[in-house]
C-alpha cells in the first residue's frame, strides 16, 4: 500500500480524477463533438483511464476485496443472461456500463488511498452542483418541472437521480463545514453552510424523499462515527441544528412537503409496497440464480395488470440483484456493500475522517428504495469508503509524528 501522500501521483491524473467527479452531474449532456451518446462525463472518464495507463503501479495497484465481489456479481449477471438465451445487443449496455464503473472504482480507490485528496473531492462535488445550478439559471442546460407532480429535475434526468446528485453535494458541503482543518477560516465555513443548505433546498425541490433521507442519515452518521463523548455531544448539537434546518426546508418546499405528508399520513410510497412484495415472491420462487438480467423486470411488470408487457424497475438495488441473479449474484453484491461500510467505519479515525462512512451509510440506505448501482456517484462513494479504510490502516503503521491530521 502506498504511503499517505498524493505527491507520488502524476499531477494530471489527480486533476482528471477531480474533473471526472465534477462531470458526474452532466452525464446526460452531450460533448462538444456532437455525438449524442458521447457525453462530457464519458469523455472525462476515457481521458482519466488513458492517463491512468501512464502510472499503472499506482492506478492499477491491488484493488480492495469489494472490487472482486462486485466483479463476481457482474460475471454471474452476464452468465445468467447467456444461460437463459435472452442476451441481445441491448443487454450489452448494462455489463459494459458496470465494467466501466468498476474500472473507475479501481482507479479512484487507488488514487484516494494515497490520501491528501479528500478535501479536494468534497470541494469538487460542491462546485459541480453549483455549476449545474448556475448553468440552469443561465439557460445553458435544461431544467424541467413535471406538470403533474411538480417535481423539478435537470438535463432530462430522473428526479430521484437528480436528487441524489444534489444530496451528495449537500453532504460534501457539510463535510467541509465540519472538518477539523484549523486552517479553514470561519468565512469559508459559513459559505459551506449556506451552500449545503442551498443544495438541500434543490434536493427537496426534486421531491426525492430518498435523497433527503440520504442527507439526514449521513448527518446522523457523522455524529455516530465520532470518537469520544465530548465529540458526540458536540456533534449531537450540530445534528439538531442541521435537522431543524432540513425540516424547515421540507416545510417550505411544496412538492417535498406534500410527498412526505402522503407518506407519513397515508403510507404512500409510490407503489413500492406492491413492488417489494412482488420482488420478494419472485426471489423466493427462484432463489438460487434468479430470473435473469432482463426477464426479472418483465416478470415484475407482468405481476401488475397496468404494467403487463412492459419492464418494471425494482426500485431497490438489493431486490434488483436478488431477482436478477438470485443468491449467486446477490451474496457477492451484498457482501461487497458490507465491505465498503466496514472499511469506511475502520477509516473514521484516519485522515479521511468520518465523512466517507457517512456517505456510504447514506448510499446504502438510498439503495433500499432506488436503483443506483449503474450511477457513477455510487461507485465514487464506494471507492471513497474503501480508500478511507486503506488510508487509516496505512497511517497506523507510520510514526505518530508523521501521521496526517484527520479531517473529521
Short description:
The chain has 408 residues and is an all-alpha fold.
Structural summary, described in words:
With 408 residues, the protein is mainly alpha-helical. It is built from 16 helices and 2 strands. It has a two-stranded antiparallel sheet with strand order 1-2. The longest helix is centred in the C-terminal third of the chain and has 30 residues, at 317-346. The radius of gyration is 21 Å and the shape is globular. The relative contact order is 0.13. Residues 396-406 have low confidence and may be disordered.
Furnish the topology, listing elements before pairings.
Blueprint: H1 11-23, H2 40-52, H3 56-59, H4 65-83, H5 93-112, H6 118-138, E1 143-145, E2 152-154, H7 159-178, H8 186-205, H9 209-224, H10 229-252, H11 254-266, H12 272-285, H13 295-302, H14 317-346, H15 355-366, H16 376-396
Antiparallel strand pairs: 1-2
Main attributes?
408 residues; mainly alpha; 2 strands; globular; disordered C terminus
Helix proportion of residues, in percent?
55-70%
Task: Give the percentage of residues in beta strands.
Answer: under 5%
Chain-averaged pLDDT:
84
Distance between the termini: 23 Å
**Spans where pLDDT lies below 50 across 5 or more residues:** 396-406
Task: Give the strand tally.
Answer: 2
Query: Would you tell me the structural class of the helices and strands?
Result: mainly alpha
Amino acid at each position: 500500500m502506498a504511503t499517505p501522500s498524493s505527491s507520488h501521483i502524476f499531477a494530471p491524473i489527480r486533476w482528471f480524477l477531480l474533473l471526472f467527479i465534477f462531470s458526474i452531474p452532466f452525464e446526460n449532456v452531450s460533448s462538444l463533438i456532437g455525438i449524442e451518446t458521447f457525453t462530457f462525463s464519458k469523455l472525462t472518464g476515457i481521458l482519466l483511464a488513458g492517463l491512468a495507463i501512464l502510472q499503472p503501479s499506482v492506478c492499477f495497484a491491488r484493488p480492495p476485496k469489494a472490487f472482486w465481489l462486485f466483479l463476481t456479481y457482474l460475471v454471474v449477471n452476464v452468465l445468467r443472461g447467456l444461460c437463459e438465451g435472452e442476451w441481445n445487443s441491448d443487454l450489452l449496455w448494462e455489463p459494459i456500463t458496470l465494467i466501466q464503473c468498476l474500472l473507475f472504482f479501481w482507479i479512484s480507490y487507488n488514487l484516494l488511498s494515497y490520501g491528501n485528496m479528500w478535501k479536494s473531492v468534497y470541494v469538487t462535488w460542491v462546485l459541480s452542483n453549483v455549476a449545474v445550478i448556475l448553468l440552469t439559471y443561465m439557460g445553458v442546460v435544461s431544467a424541467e418541472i413535471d406538470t403533474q407532480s411538480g417535481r423539478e429535475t435537470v438535463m432530462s434526468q430522473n428526479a430521484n437521480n437528480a436528487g441524489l446528485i444534489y444530496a451528495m453535494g449537500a453532504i460534501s458541503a457539510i463535510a467541509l463545514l465540519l472538518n477539523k482543518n484549523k486552517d479553514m477560516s470561519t468565512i469559508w465555513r459559513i459559505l459551506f453552510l449556506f451552500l449545503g443548505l442551498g443544495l438541500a433546498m434543490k434536493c427537496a425541490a426534486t421531491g426525492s424523499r430518498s435523497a433527503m433521507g440520504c442527507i439526514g442519515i449521513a448527518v446522523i452518521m457523522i455524529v455516530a462515527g465520532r470518537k469520544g463523548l465530548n465529540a458526540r455531544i458536540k456533534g449531537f448539537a450540530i445534528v439538531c441544528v442541521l435537522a431543524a434546518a432540513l425540516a424547515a426546508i421540507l416545510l417550505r418546499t411544496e412538492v417535498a412537503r406534500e410527498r412526505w405528508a402522503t407518506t407519513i399520513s397515508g403510507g404512500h410510497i409510490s407503489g413500492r409496497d406492491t413492488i417489494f412484495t412482488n420482488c420478494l415472491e419472485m426471489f423466493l420462487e427462484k432463489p438460487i440464480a434468479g430470473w435473469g438480467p432482463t426477464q426479472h423486470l418483465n416478470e415484475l411488470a407482468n405481476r401488475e395488470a397496468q404494467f403487463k408487457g412492459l419492464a418494471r424497475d425494482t426500485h431497490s438495488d438489493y431486490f434488483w440483484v436478488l431477482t436478477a441473479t438470485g443468491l449467486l449474484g446477490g451474496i457477492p453484491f451484498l457482501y461487497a456493500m458490507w465491505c465498503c461500510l466496514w472499511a469506511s467505519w475502520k477509516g473514521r479515525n484516519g485522515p479521511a475522517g468520518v465523512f466517507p462512512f457517512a456517505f456510504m451509510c447514506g448510499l446504502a440506505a438510498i439503495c433500499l428504495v432506488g436503483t443506483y448501482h449503474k450511477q457513477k456517484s455510487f461507485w465514487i462513494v464506494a471507492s471513497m469508503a474503501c480508500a478511507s479504510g486503506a488510508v487509516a490502516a496505512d497511517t497506523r503503521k507510520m510514526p505518530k509524528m508523521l501521521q496526517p491530521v484527520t479531517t473529521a
